[in-house]
Design goal:
The complex is a heterodimer. By secondary structure, chain A is mainly alpha-helical. Chain A is elongated and about 115 Å long. The two termini of chain A are about 55 Å apart. In chain A, about 45% of the residues are buried. In chain B, strands 1-8-3-6 form a four-stranded antiparallel β-sheet. In chain B, strands 2-7-4-5 form a four-stranded antiparallel β-sheet, with no helix packed on it. In chain B, a hairpin with a 5-residue loop joins strand 4 and strand 5. In chain B, helix 1 packs across helix 2 and helix 4 packs across helix 5. The termini of chain B are far apart. The chains are: A mainly alpha, B alpha+beta. Chains A and B meet through helix 9, helix 19 and helix 20 of A and helix 1, helix 2, strand 1, strand 8 and helix 4 of B.
């Protein structure tokens, strides 16, 4: 029974309770709201007549402004469940009041029917918004694709029950109103139950973040909207659809009103004639049934198979066809078709589409866009439609047709922009660690850039030196004609500590070569107020710049102060540009001897200083003096040596590449590794690509970005190497993903052409890991295999991560690590959007195989896909053997450990063989340990 | 409610202990992900048992940490942060945060906090130091 329920409603095992609760809530509130609205509409027609429909449309539209404005204010401040509960409570209160009016006989005037119709419409509007906003807290985008249609169907079930109730004509109006109150109270109970028993799908649209006073004004909302064209398009689409809806409804209701004369039949409880109520009841019941069937069995499957974009076109197309026919022939069939689009497909398809499209709206705007649409635009559309329809000589059918065609045009635009919008919303979560100050400014508009530049200069005049220094850093890194005079003026007021930091900034940004800076530094040097430390630093940077003559500091070559000695050496090396060649040569020789002396010193500080000085040399030949220090036990010395090499490196020194790669791979220090990468970049040798990438398997993100930078700089000649690495199954996934990413930048068509081949193998691998993770323990209950299960889990995640990275790279996704990072996050809503975003990056047949691996579905469902296409599962021995030759270090370690632990036949030989093939230091230690025991 | 530009947020961020050592290049990506907020005096910023989504970095003013019935446990001021333990663990808030005076702060979501900690180990270490230094009011 449960299995049938899951199959019919597309519900995954484990989520039945959640689905049932939300569906039940949908039926209950929908029945309550629709009983109120449908009866008020039918009785309005009976008591007032269809001629007053334009008036009621306009009145309802105006009346929506107040609840909409209230909702708009509270939606980002108050939790969705509290808002929904408050709306239900208001509904119960209103209908209790109506009940009182009915039983006390105050319901006779026209105003009562106007009031009932208008408020019932208001309640319907806010309840729809409240329900979907509340539901959205508990579902991500992929859940939405499957389940929202079930909830929509539940709402239609409520509508259908309303139709049956109307059709039966067995209850008095007072009884109906009392039922609405009772159903409202039951809805409250269900909401409370959901809140207490279910977990929200985190959206991180933090109520706590906004409660504290973020800008919630309407003006700010409009400002944000300007930056989200897709949101505007969704709003435009809904506005036009609603105009179309009202116009079409007016057309067929006017005909129905003529066909069913309300003056003849008595209706229970109201005392007037209403065959129209009975006819509409029939139609409502029929259309609800069709909605239910389509919603439950076709919508989610169609949306998953063809995408939301295709479904956007359905209603406008059918309605346009209905009105084209209707304009030619006054046949009831066209009216009924229009009726079924308005009451049927607009409800079941377009409402569900809207819920999915809303996921592409930036999260801060999302709920406010919903309110703006449901509570402002739809009533506004109603108002405009009412006004248009009230115009004399208006051709309402031609108007409906024009609106249907406009809706179709907007639907086409939405369709073409949908996937980009999904990614753009996701990209809002990207943190651009790779951007530098200058790039941030380039990403701004000219007005914003000007404003931010002005901010930097205003911080420069701050009395807080920390602010002033940060402002200088920004201005210098921005490098847009900085006002050096102003900066130097400010710097002259700094304390010693701030001055030294200022010097560092000048050196880092290369601005100490600026003539004004040099002049100022020389002036400072003459200033007797400087501290000794400042003076030494000044001498050092001036000497580094070649601005001090060798004689100035010659006597400091023997100084006990290391900084002064270094300055003297630099002055000798760089300061004699105007001297005769012989003198220059002598000075350089003296400087080299002084450096040699420092290099041979026992003091690590002196060695580090010497390495720095070699790095300042103009001659790459000096590299031979640095190489021996790369393996120095003191990290700061080996780091300085590598940094000096990075400064001196050029193409002629590329024969040292293998040494650098070996040391880079072994080093644990990020600065050392970055310097090595920079040096390798200067070698500019495409034959090194494989080794560089393979060495980076355990590198940090910033180091990998640097590798990307240097390989990208090699240009097209890197392409064949990168493609080979991306496809090479013996290389760890992380490295292949990096190669794929760079390849995507350099030669996207190459990557796209090879995508299927690369991804298909990986999907198989992912299923392989997944299967064995789930079932290996149960196949071998006699063994303790938790370690193996963990390894399979790690393998599975690594492969899936690789697939995501490669698909991102092939889709020209600006930040391919973003999707991966978001997929790993605990935020279920983001994960759902990642899957949606990936859908467009590969062929549908590939994505169908991939989807079960990405979605959060129970193992048995994943395995159903596995059993369709994959090879038979392995025995434990076979599995360990496969793992022993895997490129993954984890697989190899676990394989060796378990072979020994489980005392499998010939385990010694197997581990020895593995050790022979895997020369990694860590594995060698492990193998030795295992074999010794 | 004023809105802050990227540069303004970066400069405010620099005043927060755990980010004080970062250069402007590193501050800007973080500043891009911050939300600026201000609350009046004696307003509840978050309450016990609320779901935690963010950490709070105080820019101006002061915040009292309490457990209602036990009275104030801690007072935090400019440059300090709070709310990180629940944001890191995913557990509900174990204490209440109340503004003592008009307070301005920046908030950072937990997803972004994790990404920043991965990118800048110095921030992780600094956060750990801050966390350890204020242990008396942390639940164990």
């Amino acid at each position: 029974m449960q299995a049938l329920f899951r199959k019919v409603f597309n519900v995954y095992p484990g989520e039945e309770r959640r689905a049932l609760l939300f569906a039940l809530l949908g039926i209950v509130w929908s029945l309550a709201v629709n009983l109120g609205l449908q009866y008020s509409e039918a009785l309005f027609l009976v008591h007032i007549g269809a001629d007053a429909l334009p008036k009621i449309y306009m009145a309802s539209a105006v009346a929506m402004i107040l609840p909409a404005a209230l909702l708009f204010r509270v939606v980002n401040r108050v939790a969705a469940d509290k808002i929904f509960l408050a709306i239900i409570a208001l509904m119960a209160t209103f209908y209790s009041f109506v009940f009182l009016l009915l039983i006390t006989g105050y319901s006779g005037s026209d105003w009562f029917w106007y009031l009932l119709r208008v408020v019932s419409f208001q309640i319907w509007g806010v309840m729809v918004t409240g329900y979907w906003t509340f539901t959205d807290q508990y579902h991500n985008m992929q859940d939405a694709k499957r389940l929202y249609v079930l909830f929509s169907s539940a709402i239609f079930a409520g509508l259908g029950l309303t139709g049956l109730t109307m059709r039966a004509g067995a209850f008095s109006f007072e009884f109906i109103i009392l039922s609405v109150v009772a159903l409202s109270l039951f809805s409250c109970y269900l909401v409370q139950k959901i809140v207490k028993t279910l977990h929200e799908a985190h959206d991180e649209t933090p109520i706590e973040e906004t409660v504290a006073g973020n800008n919630l004004s309407f003006k700010h909302f409009l400002k944000q909207l300007r930056h989200s064209p897709f949101s505007l398009l969704i709003m435009a689409s809904n506005f036009v659809i609603f105009l179309m809806w009202i116009t079409a409804e007016y057309n067929y209701l006017s005909i129905f009103d003529k066909l069913y004369d309300p003056e003849t039949v008595k209706v229970e409880g109201v005392g007037v004639a209403a065959p129209l109520t009975l006819f509409l009841g029939q139609c409502v019941a029929a259309v609800s049934l069709i909605n239910l069937v389509f919603g439950l069995f076709f919508y989610s499957r169609t949306a998953r198979r063809f995408g939301v974009g295709s479904l956007l076109l359905f209603s406008p197309t059918v309605l346009a066809m209905a009105f084209i026919g209707w304009m030619r022939y006054e046949a009831l069939a066209f009216m009924i078709l229009a009726y079924f689009v308005v009451e049927g497909s607009l409800e079941v398809i377009d409402d569900s589409n809207f819920n999915l499209l809303l996921n592409t709206v930036p999260r801060r705007l999302k709920y406010r866009v919903r309110i703006a649409i449901e509570s402002f635009l739809e009533p506004a559309a109603m108002l405009i439609a009412g006004a248009l329809l009230a115009l004399p000589y208006i051709n309402s059918k031609a108007l409906a047709l024009a609106l249907a065609l406009l809706a179709l045009l907007i639907a086409l635009m939405l369709r073409s922009r949908y996937h980009k919008a999904v990614y753009r919303t996701l990209a809002e979560n990207a943190i651009h660690f790779e951007r530098k100050v200058k790039e941030w400014f380039l990403a701004m508009g000219s007005r914003e850039r000007k404003q931010e530049r002005a901010h930097l200069y205003s911080y420069l005049s701050s009395s807080d030196p920390a602010d002033a220094l940060l402002a200088i850093e920004g201005i210098l890194k921005l490098a847009e004609a900085p006002d050096i005079t102003l900066i130097l003026e400010k710097a002259s007021t700094f304390s010693e500590e701030a001055t030294l930091r200022f010097f560092d900034l000048l050196v880092d940004t290369g601005f100490f070569c600026h003539p004004k800076v040099t002049e100022k530094l020389m002036q400072w040097l003459k200033d007797s107020d400087n501290s000794a430390k400042t003076t030494k630093e000044l001498l050092y940077i001036l000497a580094k710049q070649g601005l001090l003559s060798p004689d100035t500091l010659y006597q400091e070559l023997e100084s006990a102060d290391l900084k002064l000695r270094a300055a003297a050496i630099l002055a000798l090396k760089k300061g004699g540009a105007k001297q005769p060649i012989k003198a220059i040569a002598t000075n350089r020789k003296t400087a080299d001897l002084a450096i040699e002396e420092l290099l041979n010193s026992d003091s690590e500080e002196e060695i580090a200083t010497a390495l720095n000085l070699i790095g300042e040399d103009d001659s790459p030949k000096q590299i031979h003096r640095l190489l021996p220090f790369l393996e120095h036990p003191n990290l700061s010395i080996s780091r300085k040596a590598m940094q000096a090499i990075a400064k001196l490196a050029n193409k002629q020194l590329r024969h040292n590449a293998k040494t650098l790669i070996r040391l880079m791979r072994r080093s644990q220090d990020s600065e050392f590794r970055k310097a090595a990468i920079r040096a390798l970049g200067k070698f500019n040798d495409a034959t090194l690509i494989r080794d560089i990438i393979v060495a980076s398997s355990h590198f940090r993100q910033s180091e990998r970005r640097l590798i990307e930078e240097i390989i990208t700089a090699m240009g097209k000649r890197a392409v064949p190497k990168l493609l080979a690495v991306t496809k090479d199954l013996s290389i760890p996934h992380r490295c292949r993903a990096l190669a794929g990413r760079i390849l995507g930048h350099l030669a996207l068509p190459y990557l796209q052409a090879n995508l299927e081949e690369v991804v298909t193998i990986e999907i198989e691998k992912a299923y392989f890991y997944y299967y064995h993770k789930e079932f290996i323990e149960s196949r071998y209950p006699e063994y303790q295999l938790q370690l193996l299960v963990d390894a399979m889990q790690t393998g599975f995640h690594t492969v899936v991560e690789f697939i995501i990275r490669i698909l991102s790279a092939a889709a020209e996704v600006e930040d391919s690590t973003l999707l991966c990072r978001l997929f790993r996050s605990g935020n279920s809503k983001l994960r759902g959007q990642v899957v949606e975003s990936l859908e467009k990056t590969c062929d549908r047949s590939i994505f169908r195989k991939l989807r079960p691996l990405l979605e959060e579905i129970p193992p048995e469902m994943v395995m159903r896909h596995f059993s369709k296409s994959m090879k038979p599962p392995l025995t434990l021995e076979e599995l360990l053997e496969v793992m022993s030759s895997s490129p993954s270090q984890v697989d190899q370690i676990v394989s060796a450990t378990l072979q020994k632990q489980l005392s499998l036949p010939n385990w010694r030989e197997a581990i020895a063989k593995q050790a022979k093939n895997n020369r990694d230091e860590l594995f060698q230690h492990l193998a030795q340990e295992l074999l010794e025991k | 409610m004023k809105s802050l530009t990227l540069i303004e947020r970066a400069f405010l961020l620099k005043k927060v202990t755990i980010f004080a050592s970062l250069e402007l290049d590193h501050l800007l990506p973080i500043a891009d992900k911050l939300s600026y907020s201000e609350v009046a005096a004696e307003e509840v910023i978050f309450d016990i048992n609320e779901q935690a989504y963010s950490i709070y970095l105080i820019i101006k003013g002061s915040v009292v940490i309490d457990k209602v019935e036990e009275g104030p446990l801690y007072r935090l001021g400019e440059g300090e942060l709070f709310g990180e333990e629940a944001a890191l663990s995913g557990a509900p808030r174990a204490y209440r945060a109340l503004s003592e005076s008009k307070t301005e702060f920046l908030t950072l979501s937990r997803t972004n906090l994790f990404a920043i900690m991965r990118e800048y180990p110095s921030v992780s270490i600094s956060l750990l130091e801050t966390f350890a230094a204020t242990m008396p009011f942390r639940p164990r």
